[in-house]
Amino acid sequence: MNNLLINILSFTIPCWITNMSFQFIWAFKKIIPLDHILRKIDEPFDFIFFDNKPFIGSGLRITSIVPILTLPFFFNLFLPVSLFYYLKLTSLVFLGDLLGSIIKRRLGYKKGEFAVFIDHGDYILVTGTIFLLLNYISIEVFLYSLLLTYILHPIVCLIGYKLKIKKEPF
Predict the structure, then answer these.
(1) CA 18 → CA 55, 69, 86, distances in Å?
(2) What would the pLDDT profile of 131-149 be if each residue is shown by its tens digit?
(3) Domain regions of the chain by residue span
(4) Model confidence, pTM
């Protein structure tokens, strides 16, 4: 397999898996008993910013930290880059999602309301930009990853919606 393709997949797939894991935690949470510890600690980060809008969307929760801390170990077993690389990657995916949420709230979007370019690419844009600046990935890897994400992420979101894993189609 081509080295560029391996680099694209080693970067993009962990970003996608990390981003999707937040939805799977939500789906999993629906089937656990109400008195389970995950239900008790799963509070949204709901607080109002100085502009009287929510700082971030209520979709980002304490349990969102679970994949950030666990997935790098999984990735490190199967993919050709270091554990430290994947610890940074999962953290940046979360940061990108968080930043996208902050931007959407400032622009007046409600939870679940679709925002072009923010909803499907915030996490890959932030992670890719920082990894590009750190020379972890090339510009080609970044651009192909961005393109693949903007094409495939809406499709995956629609599938998740149809399977009742997501509350909104996009």
Answers:
(1) 22, 10, 10
(2) 999 999 999 999 999 999 9
(3) 3-162
(4) 0.78
